[in-house]
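Board notes, transcribed. Complex of a protein with S-adenosylmethionine.
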Amino acid sequence: MRQETFKFGEFLETPQPPKGYQGLSGFHKYWGKKPIEAWEFLIAHLTDKNEVVLDPFLGSGLIARKCLDLNRKFIGFDINPLSIELTKLYLTPPKQSELRKAISEIYSSIRDEISVLYGLSNGKNASHYLWNKGELSKVWIKEGRKRIEIDPTERDIKNLVSSKYYDSKQSRQPIFFDNSRINAKKSLKLSDLFSPRALRLIDLLSELSSQYDDNLSRAIRMILTASVGQMSKMVFAVSKRGKTKGAVTDKIEVGSWVIGYWLPAVYFEVNAWNCFENKANKLIKALNDIDDLPPSQLAQSIPQLFHNDCNSFLQCGDSEKWLQEIPSQSIKLVLTDPPHGDRIPYLELSELWNCICSYQADYRNELVVSNAKERGKTVEKYNQKLAKILSESLRVLVDNGVLAVMFNARSKAHWDSLHTLDESKEVIYVGCYPMEYSAGSVVQDNRIGGLKHDYVLIYIKSAHKKASQEIVKHFCEIPGWLSEYPNKEQ
Ligand SMILES: C[S@@+](CC[C@H](N)C(=O)[O-])C[C@H]1O[C@@H](n2cnc3c(N)ncnc32)[C@H](O)[C@@H]1O
């Protein structure tokens, strides 16, 4: 049977085309970020105002913002400090005008330093350097909106190549593991990934971020993490043999930091201030959509969320531990997208972000299957841990509450982690639907056996027949809706 996939937004009360990753959703490339429309549909149809939604694997945090916008209470956990900080930015953003002012103040205070770091002998600042096996091959400058290629003088080349080693003063030492799948090595240092110029600028920006209040300072740090990949030596050069007005040209374009720690032989070193400013402008623009909305009242504890006017509770840590703090029968909807086996080693990939902000990550308790042997993150351990987390998620659900799990894994062994749910007498599986990705920023699994879309699996707790029929009716119109399990052998 050919399965169609669910198009986001199609089933909302006012059908809308999928927005993909625009505005706030497009600001940060958090790994494995899913289109928010996928969750919006479930929140809108399965909960009422002030009911509590839980996500034990929060990720990018966009779900928390969606709950706030729809007046639902929200509890979110994630082991990745970056995830919690990003979510706090979305829930308690600075005012657009304040952020614009702060970025302009930062620029004024480091403008001279930027010229020292990137200035050329013609008085202009370089926007890009193209490096080829350690040799500078091209320099670009910005003229208005155009990029112009120039020949660097002998003096420029001498300055650039001899620029001194710089050791970061603000970032903590990174912790990498030998993992060939993501090109990581234990010995990798920040000075391998960045030029001294970029490291110096990253330091200046982190230092300056701390002079602002919490919300502004967090926004500046999140802009830095959103742009730091593009400041690195991991920006590969794309050569395209294309035609311009009939003549065949070899055009070189700027690629982007994609995934992992691959250091290409031919890469662009992009002016780090420009990278930061681009992301800052993106966030400033996105804040326009929420500038007039009240920020979230963040609860300091789980009881406070249930008994006060607070609307969100966020906790950085292991869900297996934190779920135990939630009272039984208190949550209307659990929406979750756990790490899918060995698909994305979240903490290893987020190390770059976490170390420049000096956030410590708890590698030991991460739910993941990793190719980094030293971590001992096997499929068996993954299955046991996920089973415990899912079983706790069922405990906290109210009767007739829904658990929706977004899942996709290459092998049957990974799917086995969902057995707890199959075997539980507390819950019934009502079906699933395929969920296609709407943008390239979700890391696709291109290995043999990798699926091209996720499934959203729907379970109802202690379902009364009438109530479950009511719930199922929302789903059975969805293209590709299956009342049986997806084919795990794919
Ligand atoms: C698939 S991602 C979630 C993506 C999210 N749905 C989104 O759209 O951005 C899974 C998340 O689980 C987190 N995680 C891994 N182990 C965890 C644990 N033991 N407790 C809490 N979170 C964990 C990872 O840091 C990652 O952010």
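Confidence is low (pLDDT under 50) at residues 1-18, 438-450. The first strand starts at residue 52 and ends at 55.
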